[in-house]
Amino acid sequence: MIESNIKDYRGGWFVGDFNPSLFKNPFFEVAHHNHKKGCQTFPHTHKVTTELNYIVSGELKVNGKLMSAGDMWIYEPNEISNVEFLEDSDLIVVRWPSIPSDKYIV
Fold it and tell me: Taking the domain 28-105, which CATH number applies?
């Protein structure tokens, strides 16, 4: 058994082709993101990777659309991500393939 804690990882990313990683692999990445109410991420895109987002708790606006716990969405390559957190929120994010450098601020 391998034990770990999310505090051991950067930005909530704990699986992927980077260090540290609980399960290092080039195929996919997994993160647990916690965002405070009012947080707005920098609009960005990925040129190669696809990203699935699942809202565990909270309420947010994704590209202007209101979403809440239980909702999920996928960004395909070159789609712009623009998220505003209306409540404290927890998300699970899965990206594939694992290319940590594939993030471009727009």
Answer: 2.60.120.10
